[in-house]
Each structure stands twice: as C-alpha cells, then as structure tokens.
Specification:
85 residues; mainly alpha; 3 helices
Amino acid sequence: APTIAELAAEHEVVLAHGNGPQVGELALERSAATFDVLGAESVGQIGYVLSQALASVGCTAAPIVTQVVVDPQSDAFRNPTKFVG
C-alpha cells in the first residue's frame, strides 16, 4: 500500500485484479451459488481489503464491482481449456 500511495500522490492510479482462484474456492464451499454471485462476492471482498490497506496509508480508494458479459455462442465454450480457479 505505501508504494501505491506514493504513485497516487503524483498520478491517477487504476489497480485491477483477477479473482479466478477465489471464485474456484468459493464454488467448492457453496455449490448452490451461481458463478456471477461468487464472482461479485470475491471482487467485492478483494476491493474492500485493497481500499482498507490504502486508507491505512492515507490514500483514498473507491472499489468498483464490474460485470463481464460473454457471448454464450463463443467458440471458447465448445472446448474449454481452463477450469475456474
């Protein structure tokens, strides 16, 4: 957090992260939950932790939860090569 705060003092900073492993773990714990909900949950948790860490060094952060829309007819769904997580 201190390094990011130093950068933010002179620049506009956007910090992005992935959440595949977290969604995979949550899916194993709660099989009834859908992936969109698990994704939003993990992104929210990660954003909250990052913003709290930045706040601890005097840097204001605003976590934003986004949603990706994919084409269900995409060729990538015909032969998936990566499991969630």
